[in-house]
Automatic annotation (TrEMBL):
GO terms for cellular component: chloroplast; large ribosomal subunit. Part of the 50S ribosomal subunit. Keywords: Chloroplast, Plastid, Ribonucleoprotein, Ribosomal protein, RNA-binding, rRNA-binding. HAMAP family: Ribosomal_uL22_B (MF_01331_B). The keyword Transferase does not apply. InterPro entries: Ribosomal_uL22, Ribosomal_uL22_bac/chlpt-type, Ribosomal_uL22_bac/org-type, Ribosomal_uL22_CS, Ribosomal_uL22_sf. It is found in: Plastid, Chloroplast. This is Large ribosomal subunit protein uL22c. This protein binds specifically to 23S rRNA. Belongs to the universal ribosomal protein uL22 family. It comes from Leptodermis oblonga. Its main location: plastid. CDD domains: Ribosomal_L22.
Length: 144
């Protein structure tokens, strides 16, 4: 039996912002629905919101194209932020000295899950469990 994919993802790499600043925003939208996450991102005052907004929008477009999912059924199941490479530049200072400027980047991963497809799998699995457990008394000490 072929299992239908229920998750899609979008990656944003080398986004020029600190991973800690991006994490502050990502923690607010993890586990929320697609529409609720977009609403939260529009109202938050942080600079990190715009790239994350674009990434969530892209993940929803991937879900629509690859699985035919509707935006209403999408849920952000996983949202991760990893540190990327650090861009190092030298700024000239007085008396021939130089000053190092370190520009940090981060990698964002947004994974979205289609709830409508997952509900069908859960219903099938619960029916199988009910059929398997007919002979037992349902106690926690029953051996299988």
């Amino acid at each position: 039996m072929l299992k239908k994919k229920t998750e899609v993802y979008a990656l944003g790499q080398h986004i020029s912002m600190s991973a800690d600043k991006a994490r502050r925003v990502i923690d607010q939208i993890r586990g929320r629905s697609y529409e609720e996450a977009l609403l939260i991102l529009e109202l938050m005052p942080y600079r990190a919101c715009y790239p994350i907004f674009k990434l969530i929008y892209s993940a929803a477009a991937n879900a629509n194209y690859n699985m035919g999912s509707d935006e209403v059924n999408l849920l952000i199941s996983k949202a991760e932020v990893h540190e990327g490479t650090t861009i190092k530049k030298l700024k000239p200072r007085a008396r021939g000295r130089s000053y190092a400027i370190k520009r940090s980047t981060c990698h964002l991963t947004i994974v979205m899950k289609d709830i409508s497809l997952e509900d069908k799998d859960v219903e099938i699995n619960s029916l199988k469990k009910n059929l398997d457990g007919k002979n037992s008394s349902g106690g926690i000490w029953d051996k299988k």
